[in-house]
Specification:
Distance between the termini: 20 Å
Radius of gyration: 15 Å
Shape: globular
Order of helices and strands: EHEHEHEHHH
Oligomer: single chain
Strand content: 5-15%
Largest sheet: 4 strands, parallel
Number of helices: 6
Helix content: 25-40%
Structural class: alpha/beta
Length: 173
């Protein structure tokens, strides 16, 4: 569902403020999945802000950076993404309410790494998951590190690092 200029499928990572979880997951995915275009957005964003220092340090701890990051509100330009990877159940609910046209291509990262089928095109695999109607469950949350200290950000980055590795492996099949 790209705009035609870049043939790579677009994966949008979605969190609340587009300052921590989606930023880290996008940087990890972009580093490991060159066959995709990785973008990030949030559901409740102060537009144009850089990532937090704690996010920057958590990425640096994994030898990653995204110095050009500026927070973005999920909008029409993100609605064309081939896959929207949400960080918690509330983000999926937000998509279903504000952008129902994307609901069939939106899932939490934990659900994707647990349930993404391995056969077929990305579109076929997502269609098989019935994402617009599936009941979202509590286990599907990547906990927001926002109010935590640096150790909480490092722990979140480690959790995301593992799940992004799993997602990249699944998408390569």
């Amino acid at each position: 569902m790209n705009d035609g200029h870049d043939p790579r499928p677009v994966v949008c990572f979605l969190c609340t403020g587009n300052a921590a979880r989606s930023v880290m997951a996008r940087a990890m995915f972009a580093d490991r999945a060159p066959g995709y275009t990785a973008v990030a957005a949030g559901t409740l964003v102060l537009e144009g802000h850089p990532m937090s220092q704690r996010t920057r340090l958590a990425l640096a701890n994994l030898n990653l950076s995204d110095m050009d990051h500026r927070s973005r509100q999920f909008g029409d330009e993100h609605a064309n993404s081939d896959l929207v990877v949400a960080m918690e159940p509330g983000h999926v609910a937000w998509i279903r309410h504000h952008h129902p046209e994307v609901a069939a291509r939106t899932a939490t990262l934990p659900r994707l790494v647990r349930h993404l089928p391995t056969a077929g095109s990305l579109g076929e695999r997502l269609a098989g998951m019935d994402l617009a109607a599936v009941e979202i469950e509590e286990w599907e949350e990547v906990v927001d590190p926002a109010s935590g200290d640096q150790d909480v950000f490092h722990a979140c980055a480690a959790e995301l690092n593992d799940m992004v590795d799993q997602l990249v492996a699944l998408l390569k099949r």
